[in-house]
């Protein structure tokens, strides 16, 4: 355990030297602090003379109304997530359709029950979670692309391999080390956000923590792929980073758009199904993660299953290559 | 320090396991890289436990590959090998094994103490014992005052000393040093000799790969010559030099001017001239030295100095390797 811990700690030391990682940590912290500063508790006197508490954005008059209205839209949209598109939605007169109508009515009732101040805070946290997810994933690619190439550098890897450790332990420790850093950075951001918003508005929203598992899972899948690329091209961390971005932004983006296009031709529809069943859709995982801030959505397990498959495949292939290579 | 060597033996005597005869053993070990380069061709080697062993060979001869195969950094293509009595494929074989690779590159963000701490921890050390060992090993290589300085600030020689310190973390039973004197100045080289002797005196087996044959000659109990992936010769330094020179004695004479007739006689017996009125001749027995002196005196030649010289390891090595390389090197003794 001591040896594995040493590799994890070394990854942390390595990261502290990386400007990108520190930029990531800085930006995440800044996002949380900005949200805390922007969250402005206000009191509004109604037509009946009653005073109600709300949360708006500092310096934006009337913003509390927009936040509270957005809450309704976000909350209700979680009910539709289980359907791929509008065609998949059940017939309103069917049993499922009736249930959906009941659920939507329940949303309105829930909105009426929920404190307007809380609704404003939840929407604000939703927005920050979206930003934290996006920023952290984009910068984590740049920060982590060098972890494996640095370890596998000629003259550096030799001594590590000469230690009484099986190669799978070295590989796994390096992988977990990188992932642990991401998890700590993101968890600290959410903690800062939770405490900051709680102190500023008096609304404590522990559901914010529900974002973390899916976010870490998305990062784990991406980092497993970066690890594989790092082992395949150990001499070029830049290439690893570029391939990581190409995969995350270009491939995932194109496939996400393709999946939404309502193709008429059968073979195109089959291609859509194949792509959904073969390529992880980080967009859907991100949606499932950040909507949890307001209401745990009916999660579509397909992208999660596909991503889990990629995670295991990338880790397995990466380890296999590491195991078989002469250094 | 005979005392510490005796203590090491005593420790073996009271241990439950029988003392290991060979720290390293290989049988028909071979390695062919992708692309067909045969780096090792059936290497058979036995390194006695507790000795200082030197592996000699030209660049590309397979020395580093052999060490890397023994440490499972490179997978063997055939044959078998054991380290500390265990098959090299087992991670346990590398427990209490130190390694200084050639051209090592330590992470620039680590201090000298950080390097030792990191690799000590990877070797299974922890807590107070680890911290004590870090300081002890840095003191041993003369870097105690530099322990908190980042290695990226170090000169090549200092970085090499950090490398040696980390290889000694945990007092390993077997230490592999690949070109340990690389970039080290003569004073530090002297210190390195002390460090290696210190390790062997506590019972460790030290395996050195080096081009600096004078170091090997001074330090090592046994040596092997590896060329083109095969072991050419194994033995003590004197056995190797004897193999190169045969049983003959090489004697250098410093004399006055030699009359032509005297030189013709000596030349016919294999004598060769050297600068400043020296000549060298190889003789079968020491008694032959007196006979030569008598002959010179009889011809009224002044004899200023007579120096029987043992062949140096470097000469023997060059004779072994150089002839195969097509170099203009005369073989000094018996045919191999």
Helices and strands in order:
The complex is a heterodimer of chains A (327) and B (336).
Chain A: H1 2-16, H2 19-38, E1 39-45, E2 51-57, H3 63-80, H4 95-113, H5 116-144, H6 147-151, H7 157-161, H8 167-201, H9 211-232, H10 237-260, H11 266-278, H12 282-291, H13 301-324
Antiparallel strand pairs in A: 1-2
Chain B: H1 2-14, E1 22-32, E2 38-48, E3 52-56, H2 63-70, E4 78-83, E5 86-87, E6 97-100, H3 112-122, H4 127-140, H5 156-167, E7 174-178, H6 186-201, E8 205-209, H7 213-219, E9 222-227, E10 230-235, H8 237-245, E11 249-255, H9 260-268, E12 272-274, E13 278-283, H10 287-298, E14 303-309, H11 313-322
Parallel strand pairs in B: 3-8, 3-9, 6-7, 7-8
Antiparallel strand pairs in B: 1-2, 1-4, 4-5, 9-10, 11-13, 11-14, 12-13
Helix pairs in contact in B: 3-4, 3-5, 4-5, 8-11
Low-confidence stretches of chain B: 327-336
Q: Main interface pair? A: A-B, 28 and 34 residues
Looking at how many chains there are and whether they match, the oligomeric state comes to heterodimer
Q: What pattern of helices and strands is seen along the backbone of chain A?
A: HHEEHHHHHHHHHHH
Q: How many β-strand runs of chain A? A: 2
What is the approximate shape of chain A? Answer: globular
- By secondary-structure content and strand pairing, the structural class of chain A works out as mainly alpha
Mean pLDDT of chain B: 86
The proportion of residues forming helix of chain A, as a percent range, comes to over 70%
Q: How many DSSP helices of chain A? A: 13
How many β strands of chain B by DSSP? Answer: 14
Strand content of chain A: under 5%
- Succession of helices and strands of chain B: HEEEHEEEHHHEHEHEEHEHEEHEH
The biggest beta sheet of chain B, please? 6 strands, mixed
The SS-based structural class of chain B is: alpha/beta
Instruction: Please list the strands of the largest sheet of chain A in the order they lie side by side.
Output: 1-2
Shape of chain B: elongated
């Amino acid at each position: 355990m001591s040896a594995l811990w040493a590799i994890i700690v070394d990854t942390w030391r390595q990261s502290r030297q990386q400007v990108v990682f520190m930029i990531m940590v800085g930006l995440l912290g800044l996002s949380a602090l900005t949200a805390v500063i922007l969250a402005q508790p206000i009191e509004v006197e109604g037509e009946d003379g009653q005073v109600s508490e709300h949360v708006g954005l500092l310096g934006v008059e009337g913003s509390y109304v927009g936040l509270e209205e957005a809450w309704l839209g976000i909350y209700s949209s979680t009910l539709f997530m289980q359907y791929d598109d509008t065609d998949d939605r059940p017939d309103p007169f069917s049993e499922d359709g009736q249930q959906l109508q009941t659920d939507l009515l329940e949303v309105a009732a829930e909105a009426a029950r929920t404190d307007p101040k809380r609704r404003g805070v939840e929407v604000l946290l939703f927005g920050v979670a979206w930003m934290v997810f996006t920023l952290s994933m984009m910068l984590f690619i740049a920060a982590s692309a060098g972890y494996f190439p640095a370890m596998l550098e000629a003259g550096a890897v030799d001594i590590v391999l000469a230690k009484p450790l099986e190669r799978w332990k070295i590989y796994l420790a390096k992988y977990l080390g990188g992932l642990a850093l991401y998890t700590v950075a993101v968890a600290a951001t959410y903690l800062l956000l939770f405490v900051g918003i709680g102190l500023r508005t008096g609304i404590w929203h522990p559901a914010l923590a529900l974002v973390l598992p899916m976010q870490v899972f998305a990062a784990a899948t991406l980092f497993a792929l970066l690890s594989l690329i790092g082992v395949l091209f150990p001499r070029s961390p830049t290439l690893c980073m570029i391939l990581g971005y190409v995969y995350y932004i270009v491939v995932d983006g194109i496939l996400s758009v393709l999946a939404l296009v309502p193709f008429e031709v059968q073979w195109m529809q089959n291609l859509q199904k194949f792509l959904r069943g073969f390529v992880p859709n980080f967009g859907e995982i991100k949606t499932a993660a950040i909507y949890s801030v307001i209401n745990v959505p009916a999660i579509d397990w397909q992208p999660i299953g596909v991503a889990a498959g990629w995670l295991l495949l990338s880790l397995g292939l990466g380890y296999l290559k590491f195991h078989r290579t002469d250094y | 320090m005979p005392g510490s060597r005796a203590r090491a033996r005593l420790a073996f005597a009271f241990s439950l396991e029988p003392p290991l005869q060979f720290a390293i053993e290989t049988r028909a070990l071979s390695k062919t890289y992708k692309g067909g380069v045969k780096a090792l061709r059936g290497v058979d080697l036995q390194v006695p436990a507790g000795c200082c062993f030197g592996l000699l060979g030209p660049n590309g001869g397979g020395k580093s590959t052999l060490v890397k195969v023994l440490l499972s950094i490179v997978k063997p293509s055939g044959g078998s090998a054991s380290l500390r009595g265990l098959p090299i494929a087992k991670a346990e074989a590398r427990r209490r094994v130190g390694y200084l690779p050639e051209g090592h590159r330590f992470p620039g963000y680590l201090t000298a103490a950080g390097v030792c701490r990191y690799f000590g921890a990877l070797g299974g050390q922890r807590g107070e014992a680890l911290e004590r060992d870090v300081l002890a090993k840095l003191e041993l290589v003369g870097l105690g005052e530099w322990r908190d300085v980042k290695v990226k600030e170090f000169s090549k020689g200092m970085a090499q000393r950090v490398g040696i310190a980390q290889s000694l973390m945990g007092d390993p039973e077997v230490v592999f040093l690949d070109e340990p004197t690389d970039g080290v100045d003569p004073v530090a080289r002297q210190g390195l000799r002390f460090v290696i002797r210190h390790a062997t005196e506590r019972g460790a087996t030290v395996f050195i790969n080096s081009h600096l044959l004078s170091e090997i000659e001074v330090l090592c109990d046994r040596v092997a010559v590896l060329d083109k992936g095969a072991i050419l010769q194994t033995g003590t330094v004197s056995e190797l030099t004897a193999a190169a020179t045969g049983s003959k004695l090489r004697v250098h004479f410093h004399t006055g001017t030699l009359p032509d007739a005297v030189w013709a006689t000596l030349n016919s017996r294999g004598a060769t001239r050297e600068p400043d009125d020296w000549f060298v001749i190889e003789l079968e027995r020491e008694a032959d030295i007196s006979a030569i002196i008598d002959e010179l005196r009889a011809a009224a030649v002044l004899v200023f100095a007579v120096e029987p010289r043992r062949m140096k390891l470097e000469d023997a090595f060059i004779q072994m390797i150089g002839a195969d390389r097509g170099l203009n090197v005369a073989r000094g003794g018996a045919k191999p």
